[in-house]
Automatic annotation (TrEMBL):
Keywords annotated in UniProt: Metal-binding
Record protein name field: Phosphoesterase
CC cofactor: a divalent metal cation
Coiled-coil residues: none
Length: 166
């Protein structure tokens, strides 16, 4: 199963649209995961229409319309992989320990908020992933997103993709 993992799209404030490369990845994926800060409900509508399956949560910049349609935290079984999605996990210091305690029945936790890519594993095996942002690099060298595969209940082939500057 192919996954596209994105967060912090901030449309249309940080960009007018998702980059075409991200749309191609969304259409090729079996599952699109969005970890919040959509900002505009139009992107949710378009991803729902174009993705085979979508799991998303709202972020701190998402208003009432998005909050009415999305949960704060999402949990899903993805071919035997226990996936959770949340927008914010707090400061980087202590993140693994804090998240392992908060998500004891999760194999992979996807989060956003910082716009900083993150890939670590907590003691006990919880994998934490932040795809960065495909539209707002902030202090990062480039905008980013993640792809991954799920095989036999395990996450494999995690890849961070950098996007060319526009």
């Amino acid at each position: 199963m192919r996954l596209l993992i994105i967060a912090d799209t901030h449309l249309p404030k940080r960009a007018r649209a998702l980059p075409e490369e991200v749309w191609r990845a969304a259409e090729a994926a079996d599952l699109v995961v969005h970890a919040g800060d959509w900002v505009n409900v139009a992107l949710l509508d378009e991803l729902e229409a174009r993705a085979r399956r979508l799991i998303g949560v709202y972020g701190n910049n998402d208003g009432p319309e998005l909050r009415a349609r999305l949960p704060e935290v999402a949990h899903a079984d993805v071919d035997g992989l226990r996936l959770s999605v949340v927008h914010e996990t707090g400061p980087a210091k202590g993140r693994e320990k804090r998240c392992a305690a908060a998500f004891p029945d999760t194999d992979v936790l996807v989060f956003g908020h910082s716009h900083i890519p993150w890939d670590s594993t907590a003691e006990g095996g919880l994998r934490l992933l932040n795809p960065g942002s495909p539209t707002d690099r902030r202090r990062q060298p480039e905008c980013t997103y993640l792809t991954a595969d799920v095989e036999g209940g395990a996450l494999t082939g995690v890849r961070l993709h950098g996007l060319p500057r526009r």
